[in-house]
């Protein structure tokens, strides 16, 4: 392994709204941040530098964009702003962290070891996908397949249309209930004959006049070329195949926080695998290690909340470094 020269003040791991916002604040504070944006991969769905917004064609709920903005364009603008203030960008993964040493040692996918006084973890959470080829293709193209109803459900292409949600937990019920405001009919597709969601969440959805549940059904294929036209279903009891015509498909089978690289690092995770934070700030259980965005937020998972958390993390890191006599 080669040893990277010098000790950095702050390294930011991750390149979504949280990471870039942290970089903007850290750079303007003259902390000379480096952002490790990651390497594109399939896991089983697309995982791209820039996070989940790279799979979002139109973002209409982020302040400052009255006509909406494409997710990839937004992330490009965030990056340009961070670089404008002097942020260094590296297209590699951090694969392992050694927080037992000070300065910390971060092991990079290219074999380098980076030393830094502080770290901001902003690697996000990856939506769990069904893993179907056309599902992935349409999600990437903006063809009506999404993993976030709150992000995309109000878009004009979905209004007044039949929509489907895959899942049976609280997240699926929340997403499906939200969609009933816009869709002609919302179908919840569930592999079992009963929902896992809490009774109150089930009732909230089922009380809607346009809510339906398709029991004992699994999605075998997603249909459509440029836009989704329907889904092929398989009955999990009888094996019978059927087709459901829909104009949108929302996958709501959970998220996996991107914390695999933190194994054995000592960073405390909660029961869901998200980075555990102290109340109302970005501090982890390790002094000098901070976290922001979806990697530490299982509740909201929105671009605007992630950006806000990135701001907090940079300010916390700046204040912590100053207290250590590092500026």
Task: Predict the CATH topology of the largest domain.
Answer: FAD/NAD(P)-binding domain
| Uncertain residue ranges | none
Q: Estimate percent helicity.
A: 10-25%
Q: Find the CATH superfamily of the largest domain.
A: FAD/NAD(P)-binding domain
Number of helical regions: 7
Rg on CA atoms, Å: 21 Å
Overall structural domain count: 2
CATH hierarchy class name of the largest domain: Alpha Beta
Tell me the span between the first and last alpha carbons.
29 Å
Globular, elongated, flat, extended or rod-shaped: what is the shape? Answer: elongated
Give an overview of the whole structure.
This protein has 327 residues and is α/β, with parallel strands linked by helices. It folds into two domains: 3-126 and 255-323, FAD/NAD(P)-binding domain (3-Layer(bba) Sandwich); 129-251, FAD/NAD(P)-binding domain (3-Layer(bba) Sandwich), CATH 3.50.50. The protein is built from seven helices and 19 strands. The strands form five sheets. Strands 1, 2, 5, 6, 7, 8 and 19 form a seven-stranded mixed sheet that branches. It has a five-stranded parallel sheet with strand order 10-17-11-12-13. Helix 1 (17-28) packs parallel to helix 2 (71-84), helix 1 packs parallel to helix 7 (303-323) and helix 5 (170-179) packs parallel to helix 6. The model has no long low-confidence stretch (mean pLDDT 93).
């Amino acid at each position: 392994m080669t040893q990277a020269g010098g000790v950095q003040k702050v390294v930011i791991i991750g390149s979504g709204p949280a990471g870039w916002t942290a970089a903007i604040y850290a750079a303007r504070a003259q902390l000379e941040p480096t952002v490790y944006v990651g390497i594109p991969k399939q896991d089983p769905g697309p995982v791209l530098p820039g996070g989940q917004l790279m799979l979002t064609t139109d973002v209409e709920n982020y302040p400052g964009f009255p006509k909406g903005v494409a997710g990839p364009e937004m992330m490009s603008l965030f990056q340009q702003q961070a670089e404008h203030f002097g942020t260094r960008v590296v297209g590699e993964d951090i694969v392992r962290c050694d927080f037992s040493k000070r300065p910390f040692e971060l092991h990079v996918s290219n074999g380098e070891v980076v030393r830094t006084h502080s770290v901001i973890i902003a690697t996000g959470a990856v939506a769990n996908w069904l893993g179907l080829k056309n599902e992935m293709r349409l999600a990437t193209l903006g063809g009506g397949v999404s993993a976030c109803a709150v992000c995309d459900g109000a878009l004009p292409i979905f209004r007044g249309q039949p929509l489907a949600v895959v899942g049976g937990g609280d997240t699926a019920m929340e997403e499906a209930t939200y969609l009933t405001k816009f869709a002609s009919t919302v179908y919840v597709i569930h592999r079992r004959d009963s929902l896992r969601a809490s009774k109150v969440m089930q009732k909230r959805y089922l009380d809607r006049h346009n809510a339906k549940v398709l029991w004992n059904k699994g999605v075998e294929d997603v249909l459509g070329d440029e836009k989704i036209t329907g889904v092929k279903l398989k009955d999990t009891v009888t094996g019978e195949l059927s087709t459901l015509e829909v104009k949108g498909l929302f996958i709501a089978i959970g998220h996996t926080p991107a914390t695999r690289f933190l194994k054995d690092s000592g960073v405390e995770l909660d029961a869901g695998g998200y980075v555990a934070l102290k109340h109302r700030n970005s501090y982890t259980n390790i002094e000098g290690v901070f976290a922001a965005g979806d990697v530490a937020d299982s509740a909201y998972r929105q671009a605007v909340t992630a950006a806000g958390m990135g701001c907090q993390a940079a300010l916390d890191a700046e204040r912590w470094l100053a207290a250590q006599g590092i500026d």
